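Project channel, design review

CF: Before we commit to the Telmatobacter sp. DSM 110680 constructs, I'd like one complete example in the thread so the newer folks can see what an input/output pair looks like. Taking 3-deoxy-7-phosphoheptulonate synthase.
RD: sounds good, go ahead.
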Amino acid sequence: MAGGSLTLPRIGALRVRPSWQERFAETSDVLKSDKHQQTVVRVLDLEIGGRDFITMAGPCSVETEHQLLSTAHHVRQHGAQILRGGAFKPRSSPYAFQGHGLAGLKMLAQARAETGLAVVTEVMSEDDVPLVAEYADILQIGSRSMENYTLLEAAAQSGRPILLKRGMMATVGDLLKSAQIVLDNGNPNVILCERGVRTFDATLRNTFDVAAIVLLKHISHLPVIADPSHACGYRELVPGLARVGVVAGADGLIVEVHPTPEKAWSDGEQSLDFAEFDKMMASLNPYIALREEAIAAQTLETVG
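CF: and here is what came back for 3-deoxy-7-phosphoheptulonate synthase:
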């Protein structure tokens, strides 16, 4: 070219993709670093994010004392370490059961006293945080509340560990931003939860984003829990998705279990009965063993 030179782009030139730290720069505190590879959240005598695989199990809603206590005793005997149950229920229909509130929290506390299970339950309003924190060992932020930053701030300041569920239409980046809010408010004990997202495919209740579990375990030091119950909405598919969650690297599961799912006041179609829960737990053992082997090998590699 007259009076100058023309530099043509190289065909097939190597493009360096942004690092995960660059891609999620707004949430740097939740990302792995050389100094911080894994957060372990301690609840009673449990360590979530450590070597042990943690199962949270129980009914969608706390209905009656008999229903909750029978479920708590059963899941405890068959491998669960944490009891889940909703005292406050965010229902899509205003005519659906909304939960017992304080009475439900008291039943959860009774179940903990009888079984030794830790308790996780949802808090829906910043005004309810002190009350729920008084009875629960872990505060669950549900999918509908993931971007309620006022609630996140109040829950973080309670000092209780936070189980943060991914929003139904939230990206992984959105989930990490909400986790960052909790950390910014002085609470490092955040447990992320993949529970399925809404997509164009309406075959199942949600689409289980197993790739998100793999990604979160790769880039974040926070523990990750899989929720196969909400991920599909059909109890017969829950055990298979639970196994997928273990293989993807999840640190635990949260599943819905009910003595008689066909009579459940909410989400009965995705709740396992006792026999189905037992069978699922037995089927997970080989996969959990492989997970433990992988963690041990990774530990040796790090030490070496």
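RD: helpful, thanks. The mean pLDDT is 93.
CF: The first strand starts at residue 41 and ends at 43.
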